[in-house]
Amino acid sequence: MSAGSSGDGDVELNLAPIIDCFTVLITYLLVTASFLSLAALDVGVSATGTGAPPPSPDNTPPPMVMSLEALANGDVKINVRGGVSGREYPYVIAALSGQRDEDKLLAKLEEIKKKWPTITEASVSAEPTVIYKDVVKVIKKIQEAMPKVMISS
After folding, report:
1. 0.85 exceeded by the pTM?
2. CB 68 within 8 A of CB 122
3. For residue 54, what is the DSSP state?
4. Least buried of 13, 74, 76, 117, by fewest C-beta within 10 Å?
């Protein structure tokens, strides 16, 4: 090193390219955010159990409970159980040309509501190979007939 130079020289940091990059990035994010549409399904999580419900203190019969399962072949299995006898009432809504028959499902749910008006909620599950989008479609259709829909495992 020469005698007149020292390592303490001023270094100028050029921030213009970084600011330009962030400006473009923020603009891109704001423009794409306007094309996003978010929808929410108001569904809860059901606690499923295999044991019998505890007896009620006033000897009223246990309520009727409805569960639905979306099958991989397109069928929807409905199971209604409860009451004094604890009997199960299984129904299967067969797929129509490999697609879920949503109109038949809605009609069956309306029929079940007329038969058992105390049923106000449904628990929905699906086989592991069912596509999530199909489960959401089933839930949306059930919500047309039932005020409360829960996801169960």
Report:
1. no
2. yes
3. P
4. 13
Return the residue matching tokens 């000897």: 59
Please, where are the H alpha helices in the chain? 16-33, 102-115, 132-143
- Residue in 99, 109, 111, 114 with CA at minimum distance from that of residue 148: 109
Predicted confidence (pLDDT) per residue in 53-103, tens digit: 555 566 676 788 889 999 989 889 999 988 777 788 889 988 888 788 888
For residue 134, being part of any structural domain is answered with: yes
Question: What are the φ/ψ torsions at residue 92 (nearest 5 degrees)?
Answer: -130, 125
Q: Which are the contacts of 84, defined by CB distance < 8 A and separation ≥ 6?
A: 61, 62
Query: What number of CA atoms fall less than 13 Å from residue 79's CA on the CB side?
Result: 13
28 located within any domain = no
User: How many domains in the chain?
Assistant: 1
